[in-house]
Amino acid sequence: MPFMNLPEDVRVYCFSFCDIEDLTRLEIVCKPLRNIVLSRRVWMPRLLALEPQSIPRISPYVDVHRLSVSELKYLTISALRSREAWIQPGAEIVSPTRYQEIDLPHKRYTGPTPRLISQNLGLDEPLPWLAGASISPMIDLIPVPLPIGNRHEYVVLRRQPFYLQIVEISSGKCVWECAMSDVPVIAFDVDADYVEGAKVFRLLTVSSARIGPLNMCVVKVHNFTHGLFGEVQADASVVTRNFRASFRLYRGRAVAYLEGDFIVISDYEMIWLINWRLDRCIKFNVVSDITLV
């Protein structure tokens, strides 16, 4: 019996034994085979059969069963190629599915100078990491891990002298920047996994500040929601927490992580665990018995 005369279920079952390369070849053989390959019954089981860590992030408001066949095919092939590239690095060159170059937004900085920042912090000399801020091109970048189903993609940039911008990747447009009163932002992080309601992601900023005679750290959690045309915009609700900073943390030696209700800030000698929703802070003193020779 000719293959095309077999029942559709049997033909789809036969294709389940084909790998991705075979399917892409069969797709260009003839129109009847193309119609079978470009079927939801071929690509949906392959996507759902992937290991959980291999499945691309899919937006919670996108029903996977409503994705088009081309979207299912793209997600499956991207996940498999990415997994192969990590499991067997160097075995085969995997070309990116999309490549682009964008120019970062050039916006004249009008905030405090490095010397003024140091004076505001009560320091006699500019901090080492701010001393060359006027000429240093250093930029820190964190991508916003938005799931499949969002038409816009963003990165968070930290420019010298340590102020933040959120930039849309497709257009290179700056859609948000931190208040000049928050400069210098000594650490920042993004969380898109544990947001609720209409919120898209949260941005954590940690700034040094002088409040009266005390050296303080100002922790802010910014919420971003969808705008009218799907773009992100800053929510008016900003959660602010202040706590007494150590000398190392105050001088900008810090890393920070945001996950759900919890913030972790470390200056390599002390670790602060903060529940920003309950306004609770726990400080851990790191004691090391390792001697470096």
UniProtKB/TrEMBL annotation:
UniProt cross-references to Gene3D superfamilies, sorted A to Z: 1.20.1280.50
- List the PROSITE patterns hit by this protein, alphabetically: FBOX
Q: Could you tell me which residue ranges the F-box domain spans? A: 1-46
Q: What is this protein called?
A: F-box domain-containing protein
